[in-house]
Amino acid sequence: YAVPLSGREAPGQLIGSQILVFGDTFIGDVDARGARQNYRMVYNTMAILDGGEPDAEQLHFLWGENGDGGDGTFFVPSTPQAQEAGECWYWLQDGFVQGGYFYLMPMLVAKDLNGPPGFQFRDFATCLIKVPLDENGPQWAQHAQIDTPFFHVNEKRKLFFGAAFMPNTEAAGAPEPDGFVYIYGRYHGVGDDEVKLAVARVESATFEDWDAWRFWDGTAWNADIAATAPLGRGGPELSVTPVGSGPLAGKYLLVSMHVERDLYIRIGDSPVGPFGPRINIYHTAEPEAGQEIYTYNAKAHPSLSSTGKWLVSYNVNSRSWDSLIDKADIYRPRFLWMEVERIAPTPRRRK
After folding, report:
1. How confident is the model at residue 285, as a pLDDT?
2. 306: helix, coil or strand?
3. Which residues lie closer than 8 Å to 341 by C-beta, 6 or more apart?
4. Bridge partners (DSSP) listed for residue 233
5. With bands split at pLDDT 50, 70 and 90, how would you rate the model's confidence at 351?
6. What is the DSSP secondary-structure string of 80-115?
7. Is the pTM of this model over 0.85?
8. What pLDDT, in 10s, does the model give residues 63-99?
9. Whole-number Å distance between alpha carbons of 229 and 227
10. C-alpha 315: how far from its chain's center?
11. Does residue 314 contact residue 332 with C-beta atoms inside 8 Å?
């Protein structure tokens, strides 16, 4: 994920630096053959990109606890839920900046050896990470970790939030601000292989007041998280962005994918939809190399996009650990540009 330190999320409004959020990360060297050497893997890392251009000299990776450069993961779970669970880690999700803080809502994850290769883990909670900002940037070592009540399971489905934030506020540069932060999540029905979209919202001023959150039940905003309704297909990671100009002006652009080869978009009439049908925009090539490679986790990065041209990324992985070690190039995000044009309808011929 990419999060602007300025809080300005809209395309074409880049100001200052970006926080880049990474999950599982290899740290080490790569030899001339492209194989990893002297490596280790940690559960999450961060980076700061000065400006919005893909300039390696302006990209500064941060690893170790709170970025200390050590051997540990960046954010080590310390909430009461985490301490009660024992060995666990954070799977970082989306974040946003407001009111002098950088907010993240990661999942708590633990090992589950019953899962298939590459997926031997289970998620069981969501937390809030709150990082203070000052003139020197994020003060990582001063961050707070807070348990949240936004992981909800019943006999019908598993539901949790934080996969995408959409601050629909003036401060974020939203084209039609209403003062709310929209928080998108995953709705996974029992026996359903398809992950669906769900959404909550809260006024930006009361973001940390859990009782102020409301959940879309398909008709209205409901105080009961159990009433949350699915909004059709939405991947495990995603983005939803209000569009201020061009052919999609006034619409809401969802970008996502599951563990599959096709990136897709869905176009909504409001932050809760209705979102239109899936439109595939790109077919990934990496799995054609074999090596148990798969692709997943597409999303747009509006704060790194220009007006009318969207920067989109997706992740590449392999179910084979040996492949990840022998071919270091597999395990990294790929980026592409997406443009939307208005196409005039073909005139119908009269009989």
Report:
1. 97
2. strand
3. 247
4. 196
5. low
6. HHHHHH-S-EEE---EEEETTEEEE-PEEEEE-TTS
7. yes
8. 999 999 999 999 999 999 999 988 899 999 999 999 9
9. 6
10. 11
11. no
